[in-house]
C-alpha cells in the first residue's frame, strides 16, 4: 500500500470543520462532501474511539456495500484515525479473504490545525495501487466540497 496525503485550507474554525467532516451535528454534511466518492455515501455507527463504524453506500443495483472500520483514535477538533478491516456486502461483514487482505489494517487519518481562523485539514490514506488514480482525483474534489460547506 502507498500512503497518499492531501490538504486544504478552510476559512472556518477547526470545530466547525471537524463537525462538518464527521457529520456530527447533521449527518447531511458528511454525506455532502463524501458524495464525491459515492452519491449515496453515508455512515452507520459512532465516531467514538474504539467503536465499529460502517461507511456505506449503494451500488447501481441498489445493493448496500461499503467498509467495515474501527475508529482507532478521535481527539475532537484535532485528529481522527480510521482503521479499515473489512467489507460490507449487503448485510454481511467480510473480514477475511483475498479482497480484504490487500488493504486490511490500512489507516485513513484526518488532522485539523487551526491558525488565525483558518483550519488546515490534512488527509493521509493508505491506498492499494489499483485505487491511486481514483483517490488522486476524488479526494481533492471531496475536500473542495468540505471547504465550500464549511465556509458558507
Structure overview:
- This protein has helices spanning about 15-20, 25-35, 100, 130-150, and strands at about 1-10, 40-45, 50-60, 65-75, 80-90, 90-95, 105-115, 120-125.
- The protein contains 4 helices and 8 strands; from the N terminus they run βααβββββαββα.
- Strands 1, 2, 3, 4, 5, 6, 7 and 8 form an 8-stranded antiparallel beta sheet that branches.
- Helix 1 crosses helix 2 (about 25-35), helix 1 (about 15-20) packs across helix 4 and helix 2 crosses helix 4.
- The chain is α+β, with helices and mostly antiparallel strands.
- The protein is globular and about 45 Å long.
- It has a single domain, classed as Alpha-D-Glucose-1,6-Bisphosphate, Chain A, domain 4 (2-Layer Sandwich), CATH 3.30.530.
- The mean pLDDT is about 95.
